[in-house]
Design brief:
By secondary structure, this protein is α/β, with parallel strands linked by helices. The chain has a single domain, classed as Flavodoxin domain (Rossmann fold, 3-Layer(aba) Sandwich). It contains six helices and eight strands. The strands form two sheets. Strands 1, 2, 3, 4, 5 and 6 form a six-stranded mixed beta sheet that branches. Strands 7-8 form a two-stranded antiparallel sheet. Strand 1 (2-8), helix 1 (13-27) and strand 2 form a beta-alpha-beta unit.
Length: 165
Amino acid sequence: MKVLVTTGSKYGSTREVGDAIAGVLEESGFEVDVQDACDVLSVTYYDAVVVGSAVYGGLWRRDASELIRDHLVELRRREVYMFSCGMETVVRPGQGLDEADALARDVGARKHQRFPGALDYERLNVGEKAIIRALNPPRGDFRDFAAARGWAGRLATELRAVAAV
């Protein structure tokens, strides 16, 4: 089974989570390609697609959301899993419908998982710093790679079951 793991990541934190997920899938015997969402031209050659994005104010990065919108018909015919990385004060489990939930519904994603993200204030541009000052989320790296690898392990189990059908 061929799997694409693709992420929308401005500063690389979400990409690193995607890399951890891809590593587990590779170790589980899947053929895995890893690409930035902005570089994906087609999903035609994949049986499954894992799409992840950084989340800012409840919105996915444009490259990741556009990937889903641009390839919606093809993605609906594949096994799609999604994950979001963001600060817990911005993206919380159980919060109301946000862009990622709507995208997951539109594409028929089997799962949408949320992971805490990282916020390095010094890397932000002036506009981003102004928003962060207003929202005042915690700063630091809160990513949970063990949780991401555990989720990827469960995906591998699901994908093996789908492939066996």
